[in-house]
Amino acid sequence: MVASFNDRYHYGYSQRQACNMRQVERLCIFTPTYNRAHTLEALFESLKRQNSRQFYWLIVDDGSTDDTEALVRRFMTDAPFRIEYSKQPNGGKQRAYNRGVELCTSELFLCVDSDDLLAPRAVDTVLDSWVSYQDDPTVAGLIGMCGSDAETPLSNGMPPGITRTTYWDLYYKHGHKGDTAPLHRTEILKRYPFWVADGEKFMAEPYVYHQIDQHYSLGVIDRVLIVREYLADGYTANVRAITKKNPIGYMTLKRMYVEYSDTFWLKFYNSILYLVGCQLSGTRRGVRNAPNRIIAALAYIPSVILRRTVYR
């Protein structure tokens, strides 16, 4: 179900006020969620603390069985911004993400997970920064940082003097470490949806970001946009288990990495991971079907060792 804009009107906004709000909503804060009613309240409060109101909150509920829906309905009665809510059968974060992009009505799209917080003045920071790039069609969006708090990045900081980059170059050329907060033009994201294998529920975000890298760059924001705490049931704490449950997606992603890698070391390293994905998924002829067969042949034995140790 979708909580429509008319539903918001019933909670105290006149139709004219509602239309005016739509006109200034340049940013969509998108949150995919699954049984996270216990964390959504803190995220909601961080959105209420934003100085700017040029955003709305779009929630895609990926089949929650807790009281998420009732909680969001309560948020709607107290929100000084528009909230849209859509519920779908459980299919994983990336299917929820695709649905969010499909529903999005604003120029920019920023994913903030249900266990994250939006840093104070993050909306102002995004929109002020976007002014420098919005008229350049080669710029797909912006990239800021995640932090343990609003002042402390979960990283080594943005490379000094860099105003534009791709997601790939940020990590593999500029040596960035840690989580980032990318946001994109919605019209571009609509052209690059996530692919998720049948029977699986996960594909890592770089699957989309690195495809966009082939055609666009990102403006750099040297500020924390999202405050993040790693939870015991989150992706980071369970990365290997998630990989084993979604091996086809993992194999597909790492094959892409091999194709995009521009050094022998990166091609070799990602070939190892691609072959691990082949072994986990039962895909035969991984070396023969690899982007570079010679490098894949060299990577085969290391991949078997990794599969039998780290991914056993």
Task: Please give a quick description of this structure.
By secondary structure, the chain is an alpha/beta fold.
Key features of this structure:
disordered N terminus, 19% strand, ten-stranded mixed β-sheet, alpha/beta, 13 helices
Description of the molecule:
This protein is 42% helix and 19% strand. With 312 residues, it is α/β, with parallel strands linked by helices.
Could you outline the blueprint of secondary structure elements for this entry?
Blueprint: H1 5-10, H2 15-24, E1 27-33, H3 37-48, E2 55-61, H4 68-78, E3 83-87, H5 93-103, E4 108-111, E5 116-118, H6 122-130, E6 139-149, E7 152-153, E8 164-165, H7 167-172, E9 180-185, H8 186-189, H9 206-213, E10 217-228, H10 239-245, H11 247-260, H12 264-281, H13 293-308
Helix pairs in contact: 11-12, 12-13
Structural class assignment: alpha/beta
- Report the total helices: 13
What proportion of the residues form beta strands (DSSP E)?
15-25%
CA radius of gyration is: 20 Å
Our measurement of the CA-to-CA distance between the termini, rounded to an integer number of angstroms, reads: 41 Å
Multimerization state: single chain
Helix content: 40-55%
